Amino acid sequence: MSKVIMTNKQLIERLKVLANKKTLYVNRYPYNLCYVRSDGRISADCVNLYKALFNGYDVYNTTVGYYQRDLSNTGDCTEAGLISQCTEISSDFNIKDNDFRLLYMRGHIGGYIGCVQRNGHEYNVIEATPAFGGGIVYSWMDSDGTRRPYKGGVKNGKWIQYGKPTKWVLYATEGSNSSDKPKVDYSTYPVLKKGSTGKYVKILQQLLLDKGYDPKGIDGIFGNGCLNAVKKFQKENTDINGKKLVVDGCVGQKTWGSLYK
After folding, report:
1. Does the global pTM surpass 0.85?
2. Do residues 260 and 210 touch, judged by C-beta distance below 8 A?
3. Pairing of the two strands 35-36 and 135-141
4. Positive or negative CA dihedral for 167, 16, 207, 201?
5. 25 CB neighbour count, 10 Å cutoff
6. CB distance 24 to 87 below 8 Å
7. N- or C-end of the chain: fewer Cβ atoms within 10 A?
8. What is the pLDDT of residues 168-198, one digit of tens each?
9. What pLDDT, in 10s, does the model give residues 19-42?
10. How does pLDDT run across 67-118, given as a tens digit for each residue?
11. Are 136 and 52 in contact (CB under 8 A)?
12. Whole-number Cα distances in Å, 8 to 100, 142, 146, 194, 210
């Protein structure tokens, strides 16, 4: 049975992590899913990139040989099979929000992520392709579905459909006060600081990343990257009562509460 495994924002952040790494486009090899090669590059083709993510691929796992073994969420389907499992399927590409959409053209699939700027160009798609330099790359989609390497670049095909992968991605509660939003009893969470390790550090790192503060990995180790992200978060946010957080790099109840707001 398919299950929701991430939020819309988490999916987009995981895609950005992969697109910012060294990657290689390899057509359906090996094991038809994302794979960490001996040279450290992550290889995938278009549909297998998204099948891996929708089945819980850990984008921070750099172990050589690592790949997503479980396909129970999506099945081992083609591009057409994956888009057919989406909801709100449409061909009106004049998208007004930044919600993720799975994009489809015959023999190819990609993902709309909302507009981002990199190296002086604008992009709104991440796809695994032999085009545009090859690998897992940023690209651009016009409001009529035209595909380009970046906004204003040369045309390179046209998307014909998109859909929301709501079987695996949660859209409804993000940025809202919906009663469906998961409630977490963080009062039982330990105080964390530099040098802490374990599952609660992983939870902290994921929360920071979801809030836009990059801890430089979801590895369960509270190192300098995590410390800097915590301090920046504390400096720019308040506790659940609206009071300024102490910027000390330690994660106690007030910082946990702020992260879960």
Report:
1. no
2. no
3. unpaired
4. positive
5. 20
6. no
7. N
8. 998 865 443 334 444 577 888 999 999 999 9
9. 999 999 998 766 678 999 999 999
10. 988 889 999 999 999 999 999 999 999 998 889 999 999 999 999 999 999 8
11. no
12. 6, 21, 24, 30, 10
Instruction: Please provide the DSSP assignment of the chain as one string.
Output: -----EEHHHHHHHHHHHHTS-EEE-TT-STTS-EE-TTS-EEE-HHHHHHHHHTT--TT---TT-B----TTT-S--HHHHHHT-EEEES-----S---EEEEETTEEEEEEEEEEETTEEEEEEEEESSTTSEEEEEEE-TT-BEESSTTS----B--EEEE-TTTEE-TTTTS--TTSPP--GGGPPPB-TT-BSHHHHHHHHHHHHTT---S--SSB--HHHHHHHHHHHHH-B-TTSPBPP-SS-B-HHHHHHHT-
Residue written as tokens 């993000």?
Answer: 174
pLDDT in tens, 220-242: 999 999 999 999 999 999 988 88
